[in-house]
Amino acid sequence: MFVARSIAADHKDLIHDVSYDFHGRRMATCSSDQSVKVWDKSESGEWHCTASWKTHSGSVWRVTWAHPEFGQVLASCSFDRTAAVWEEIVGESNDKQRGQSHWIKRTTLVDSRTSVTDVKFAPKHMGLMLTTCSADGVVRIYEAPDVMNLSQWSLQHEISCKLSCSCISWNPSSSRAHPPMIAVGSDDSNVMYGGKVQIYEYNENTRKYAKAETLMTVTDAVHDIAFSPNLGRSFHVLAIATKDVRIFKLVPLRKESSSTGPTKFEVQIVAQFDNHNSQVWRVSWNITSTLLASSGDDGCVRLWKANYMDNWKCTGILKGDGSPVNGSSGQPGAMNTMVGSTVQTSQNALNGSAAGRYFFPPLDAPRAGSRYGHLLPPPSLIEHSDAQSSAPWFPHSQLPQSPLAIHGQPPQSPLSLHRLYSHSRALNTLPEHD
């Protein structure tokens, strides 16, 4: 059963990001109070703050976990123009914190001259690499040559994007047919300038990243961007959070044997939704890339799923406080293949703030004692698109948590972190025609 819970986070200012570790058992939050808090999930499902410390001298925009094979490692980025790497260690026998874990700063990355707006670890098959993007329009890629010594990071690449950068996403594909690829979104306010999303690809010959594609139809400020997990597909799927939700398909075109340039793509927009009727701040995929979750200034999390004909529909609407969705604003629907839609939003973006920067976490482990650990939410919290909606979806029984804010309302203190949906798997067998 879906239960909406809140956590008294005790941050002194607005929470900008929530990040879950690989297993979904740990959570990190960051805030304009310049602090990061780490939360651990107990066997009873309760979240407890196990660490809290001041990390930067400015608002902390994002926090992210490294893959656990590299240890318990966090990275944060801030308005103070820096990014930092933190590692959890256990106190030595002669330490007054004997047996207790605590977080220490391993390094500070100071190359940016402006606010560092996003930080992401690269997919683990690439090694321990960290990427930042800044308001100065530069994406920087760092590498830790020795994973046992996180105090040493070398700047490997600098990519100039010309526009101020707001978010980045690595293509998670580990296929040798797909070179490393990164998508960069811009929140530049000039709507006359198209191409707010740029795709960069690594070239083995030049050993540099080159621009492979620009999505010219995206002209509004981009707040979040997410490649879907690639489970053997030949093409890539990219979700974008702007004034609406958009899903693009990037199909690589066959390269000539003599070609040494970046891959060319056929860009298709497969879905576009304005159901939030406001700015969309986060998009996140489940681990099988069959379900997309989005959050917006309407205070709702909306779930999108494609049927066997690749038609995307809204399959659920969740409110952060657990109340049912009422009114026409909750009517799901889809606008497929709408390039350059002129749908007007009823609310403007938050003026110059990152108040809407909210995160959808990865999956949580199935609950002990349950064969599948999957249950449907109660009817009051889910709204189906129609009687002949897309293929059935099955949310996870453990629903991770994330903050939501409704446009125009001041941040609450303490700001509650609400239960959000992030993972689904089809458990029953689909009909033959599916």
UniProtKB/TrEMBL annotation:
One of its GO terms (molecular function) is structural molecule activity. One of its GO terms (biological process) is positive regulation of TORC1 signaling. Keywords: Cell cycle, Cell division, Centromere, Chromosome partition, Kinetochore, Lysosome, Mitosis, mRNA transport, Nuclear pore complex, Nucleus, Protein transport, Repeat, Translocation, Transport, WD repeat. GO terms for cellular component: kinetochore; lysosomal membrane; nuclear pore outer ring; Seh1-associated complex. SUPFAM superfamilies: WD40 repeat-like. WD repeats lie at residues 8-40, 273-305. Belongs to the WD repeat SEC13 family. Component of the Nup107-160 subcomplex of the nuclear pore complex (NPC). The Nup107-160 subcomplex is required for the assembly of a functional NPC. The Nup107-160 subcomplex is also required for normal kinetochore microtubule attachment, mitotic progression and chromosome segregation. This subunit plays a role in recruitment of the Nup107-160 subcomplex to the kinetochore. This is SEH1 like nucleoporin. It comes from Salmo trutta (Brown trout). The lineage of its organism: Eukaryota, Metazoa, Chordata, Craniata, Vertebrata.
